[in-house]
Amino acid sequence: MYLQKSGIIALVLAIVLAAAPFALADKDGVAYPEGFRTFTHVTTGIVTPGFIFNGVDLGSLVPGLHNIYANKKAMRSYYELAAGSTSTIFKDGAVIAFDLWQPGTLATGTGSFTFQQTRIAVAVMEKDRKKYAATGGWGFQVFDPATKTPQLNAAQQAECFACHSITPDTDFVFSKFSD
To answer: Which fold is adopted by the domain 27-170?
Structure first.
């Protein structure tokens, strides 16, 4: 009886563990990119309050320290863009992770040091031209940094694309690779 019970528990546990990666995807399939900080670091920027870009108040929407990471498929396209390509299209399977942090500052009498203090969110762009045809081939999602649960509904994901649609020459990607 004990062996039978432990076998059932092991089977249920195996099914739960096998399904776990899919539990962190939103209904459209954009998944939390586990291990994204092992992707290639593309660039870092800081958005401060009051920064308006193309009529959008990014200073209030996404203030803070921005670290951008890309998987290998995305990096191929970043390299093409850095080499001057004007027709680069990111390949299906490309993933770009936008790691947003509240900056902290350590000040001394001679200057200051800014650092990553508290993670605010992890935003993700995932390329799949068929699945996300309505949004330029990109799926968008923002994940809670503690629970890794998706935060955007379909309308909010469409708003992401509306902002990114001003950059069709770079396949709707704002960031540029900083070698």
So the answer is: Chalcone isomerase (3.50.70)
